[in-house]
Amino acid sequence: MTGQTIARRPNQLFRNLNAKIASIPMILTAVVIFLGGTLWTVVYSFTNSKLLPRLSFVGLDQYERLWAATRWTVSITNLAIYGVLTLIFSLVIGFLLAALMDQKIRFENTFRTIFLYPFALSFIVTGLVWQWILNPEFGIQSVVRALGWTSFTFDPLYNADIVIYGILIAGLWQGTGLVMCLMLAGLRGIDGEIWKAARVDGIPTWKTYLFIVIPMMRAVFVTTLVIIASGIVRVYDLVVAQTSGGPGIASEVPAKYVYDYMFQAQNLGQGFAASTMMLVTVAIIIVPWAYLEFGGKKRG
Amino acid sequence: MANPGSLAVTVAGADAMSDSLAGPRGRRPQRSLSGRNIMIYGTLAIAALYYLLPLYVMVVTSLKGMPEIRLGNIFAPPVEITFEPWAKAWASACTGLNCDGLSRGFWNSVRITIPSTVISIAIASINGYALANWRFKGSEIFFTILIVGAFIPYQVMIYPIVIVLREMGIYGTLTGLIIVHTIFGMPILTLLFRNYFVSLPEELFKAARIDGAGFWTIYLKIMLPMSLPIFVVAMILQITGIWNDFLFGVVFTRPEYYPMTVQLNNIVNSVQGVKEYNVNMAATILTGSVPLFVYFVSGRLFVRGIAAGAVKG
């Protein structure tokens, strides 16, 4: 019976069969890992799993414990400070560098190569270099002291109050080159006629940038913002390499909290709850962006 | 959520943008030493110094002996150049009980990076090809999930993958890690290839279909030879990305298979023994040298790769 059906009209399932077979890895990744894995983690964040995942639900217990933990609140605060400052500084520095590079300068390729090379390096390498430069015994602090200013203090990695700024310095060093490149591409995309028109009208350069060019680069800014933001939430290697979360717990970040609870403290439930909170954080960033970027177009 | 088509356009935009980086346009620079020029070049030069400083400090420190480091300042060039720290970092630096240096991590990283790069690009290019030319019912839905998945923090998906790999009996092995890299490289690479294949003239594909070529023939005989540049971009993206990975290495492999980044971190941040800063810096340069080499050799293609790959975060 079924054989006859196939003979008459090929079954829908076998249309494009090769493409479907070739797509099996993609389908498995999308459905099993991305969709299934995420749901699995969210579901198990409501259980009291310890060493092994167990399906005994305890409601919001893990989340209450999470938000009561000092280490978690420190992690979230650090992420907020690091995130906001990274966004501001990398956008400002990236844009300024790009604007300077866009003045028809010589050696543009050399400058770009220099600004962008840190981006090729891993966060581990970045963290370790800056750990060495910021080392109070040998690094910047000791060099300045040797010059005669003996009370000079600059030891961000050993001072719990400012350790996150030490990490910020390293993070900016690694990432601003990319922002500069994206911004430069955006500036090059602006029609030269706009600049001529502004000059004819006698508008000063800085005003042209601020009120004409930057609003025109909205799309570039938004893309860059999303790129930086989704990277910030994941910050992990940099902290591990530079401070291992120290001094004490002063430079802990959420991603490290998740790893430590899942693989060191063997408290899976806490790890799942913390990673679910990370997912929520990303959703808070991505959903409004996706809505603004793609939701509005249906109407227009 | 994000419609993959529009997102693809955003990324394609970033890709096209990088092409416009092809070089300065317009009239030649003026040869005047005006105040404006001094300001521009001065600011750029200071910024360049800030970006170059860490590289300089790394190299200088790695060429000094420990006594000189204790006495001198970290910015001073070495009085007596020694390559001993490099030899030690490569062959005899200790991580825990093992004292065979970074070389083990280097070879592990090679054994991880090469197959991961090849497999992930092979799979993703076929995905992109299927999505561009052989759409089937549901293919766009899977693609949407894949792209949205690129924004999910890895921490959310790590443990389920550990369970899957454990069930398959390959948790802790290089094979497992290669699969993980293939999975997490898939969204951005698939997007990259899909956008590229969509931009190829459709007549080509149709002509081949009329001549009776099938799915694999068209891929191997037409698409592959026509898209070498995008394969190079994907390779740059994957080699640097996988070489620089730390999280997956530490989660999915046993200590004997640790990649170079993990081993480097263990050597430098180990609490035992006297800190040998020169050896640490030599080890750091050694680990960074592979992506740096790729960066300096590939030049503009690297910019193109990251403009596309930056979505990965």
UniProtKB/TrEMBL annotation, chain A:
Transmembrane residue ranges: 21-46, 79-101, 113-133, 162-187, 208-233, 272-292
Keywords noted in UniProt: Cell membrane, Membrane, Transmembrane, Transmembrane helix, Transport
Chief localisation class? membrane
Q: Where is the ABC transmembrane type-1 domain?
A: 76-291
Query: Key word Membrane present in the record?
Result: yes
Any one of the GO CC terms: plasma membrane
User: How the protein sits in the membrane?
Assistant: Multi-pass membrane protein
**GO BP annotations, alphabetical order:** transmembrane transport
Q: What compartments host this protein? A: Cell membrane
Q: Per UniProt, what is one Pfam family of this protein?
A: BPD_transp_1
Tell me which PROSITE patterns the record gives: ABC_TM1 (PS50928)
Q: Which InterPro entries match?
A: ABC_transporter_permease (IPR051393), MetI-like (IPR000515), MetI-like_sf (IPR035906)
SUPFAM superfamilies on file? MetI-like
Q: Which family does it belong to?
A: Belongs to the binding-protein-dependent transport system permease family.
Q: Which PANTHER family match?
A: ABC TRANSPORTER PERMEASE PROTEIN
Q: What is this protein called?
A: Sugar ABC transporter permease
- Species whose genome carries this gene: Xaviernesmea oryzae
Automatic annotation (TrEMBL), chain B:
GO cellular component term of the entry, any: plasma membrane
Q: Which CDD domains match?
A: TM_PBP2 (cd06261)
Under SUPFAM superfamilies, the record lists: MetI-like
> In this protein, which residues make up the domain named ABC transmembrane type-1?
106-298
Q: How does it sit in the membrane?
A: Multi-pass membrane protein
**InterPro entries in the record, alphabetically?**
MetI-like, MetI-like_sf
GO terms (BP aspect): transmembrane transport
Establish whether keyword Cell membrane is in the entry: no
What keywords is this UniProt entry annotated with? Membrane, Transmembrane, Transmembrane helix, Transport
Give coiled-coil spans as residue ranges.
Answer: none
Coarsely, its chief localization is: membrane
Q: Name one Pfam family in it.
A: BPD_transp_1
Q: Where in or outside the cell is it found?
A: Cell membrane
The record lists the membrane-crossing segments as 38-59, 112-132, 141-164, 170-197, 218-243, 281-303
The family assignment reads: Belongs to the binding-protein-dependent transport system permease family.
Name the chain's protein.
Sugar ABC transporter permease
Please name the source species: Xaviernesmea oryzae
